[in-house]
């Protein structure tokens, strides 16, 4: 027992308590500390330039009186936004992929007043989401493809009370799914292609039935329909018995489905279906014989179906059909002599059909037809000559057509037409002497919404009622605030290194001591542009990183660089792969490049033309930067070293020697000392070890061994005999390996799959018996999506979803009873979207969204009351999106925006422990007594006690330097601070 921390004799402790109490009373207590709390501050506005930044609105979809769309505000990637057409009513709904990463909502569909869409977050990939227009009501419907992979929902289509879509699943492949808006009601409709993917496409709703194209693996791609049940999901007709008819270009008109298909005899032609085999037939063989007319863009207008097709003689021209062979005719050969007029953008207004076409003389211009050859004419030659003016399909707004066109003088702008040459006019020249590039045109409530660039605000959301005065910017979503966009923050002592871009927007290495004057460019690496900095890694007093010093043949490519923080001490270590290619193999841009330090030697995967991707090491000199071993020595094949982890003077990693598959390897830095630790999955399959983690000088990892060796958690002492299977947490379902291995005071916590509990929290002491499920956080077979596992003062903190509150902050002491949610930060099922967790002075800091302030900086002492917003950096519902956090000394650095300066470097230096163990805001004798009771062993210290009471020793500046122990030194410092003898 630590004699400093505990007292075995309570009587002397009681005497000390009485003595301290008397001393405190003589001093006239209580004494309170009056210093205000520390707040985050921007370190320096590195990029002071103002330049247009675009939010790039896209995917606009109306739901009631609200327009939903995707946009990026400069701090958050493309996320879900909404607008009622006013600046005040245009707001971020939710930062789904919290932080600067893209949520990219798309494929919108509305059902029962709720907007459904696919979106991505960093932990579950692209999945199905829904929104009622509020942050709290914007939630994941279901994680269909669990484990960070994406189900990528496509073609969301509403049929009555059911949402249909196609999705990817690890067992079924890409098949047809449906949802009622709940996780339980989001299910596979039918596994159409067993053992493969049917890949449903062209989903269309017809009279309460879903039609689509699919391939069951037997008939080829054919026309199918579904009522939402497995039994009611059937092929409509085997149109081409010899290999699939490949239905496409589907359109619904008059209760009939029109589409293109190839029956094997007539080529791709126009077909129709009423949902029965007998009612599914060829409308007309437009290009006679086996040739195809390839009809496309069919649109029903005024009792007829209009489309573009090629009969083999006139080229691609405008056609019409009443659904019969006789009623399927060419409207007009607009571009004669077999040339294509290629009509597109077909829309109806009054008794006319409007479209864009090229007559071979005037380029693509606006045309119209009444369905007769004589009544088919060009409306106006907006851009005289052969250039053509049309850049978008026309949209019908208040009895006129609005569209994007270029008259050759004003650039691409919004135009309108009433169907006459005189009534075809530019609405507004949004950006004089240039072009505003209107796009994403969408009509809502008799108003045209679109994206455009006025040359000042970038590409933003606009609207138009067809008048110049009514064509206005709705809101500048991404302000022109510049921003240096710091990333890859790395700490060296009290200094932080990072990549950032100044006014020239070229990224280089910067450093900061936390002051504006001390935040400086280290060196301009690439005088021609950005250095593509990556993998900033500190080894001792040296910063290693990847960078490119030039472009084209003058470049060395992406190579290993180092820096001591000075311009003179910053340079390429050596040109490992001579020429512009570099060591980052361009054929594998997403290959995970990891570094590990053993002493002053850094290990990393490097690429050369002769050896491929293999294990290298460097001592920071050109001579000391060498290939360790060509593990896969067959020709120029690669072993792809990954997950480099240092333990006991060696580096461990995963590699494939071309014979054994991906297995666990180790190296002492020599070729002879670089060897496979154990062939866990024999016969060349490879066990693909993951999550290499060191605890008590033992390497833990997960691996997919065979039935003999074991699938699940493993451990190794670096020898083959000492590489032992610990436990298979899911013996009947080998779909997911244990992940997020995190040691906390000699206990290994991790997430693992169990048949009955799903993917939940486990712990291990390294034995089979001691490897057990801690808690089924989301009861039943569902998974709590555990992530960001972090140990603090013997307690595990993590982010988890219990199925009720969404993803929130949790903690665990390793028991079911001690595994609890810390606080419901974002009330409801939405979840706080926590993106990272860091620890400073025993306190947790993280980025979270409470549904009111956006994604901001929070702190927690492990209690609900002590889990609070640190500061609303970007005031209001917008997000400052703190990202790329790193702790340097006792200061937290991160990138964020306050809405005025763009994304810049920020810091937060939390107040040191203040001795107020009770947390009541007053430093008094009760705090001294609490500290003394802990030392005496009378009271068990809590996380909050360590955060507030670990105040000793004091550093050279008289500030606490917590040592992780509450002892008599802390008692005395608390007492002295209470008496006013010391302060900080």
From TrEMBL:
It comes from Geobacter soli. The keyword Signal applies. Keywords: Signal. This is Hyalin. One of its GO terms (biological process) is polysaccharide catabolic process. It comes from the Bacteria. Residues 1-35 form the signal peptide. NCBIfam families: ELWxxDGT_rpt. InterPro entries: Dockerin_dom_sf (IPR036439), ELWxxDGT_rpt (IPR030916), Quinoprotein_ADH-like_sf (IPR011047). The keyword Signal applies.
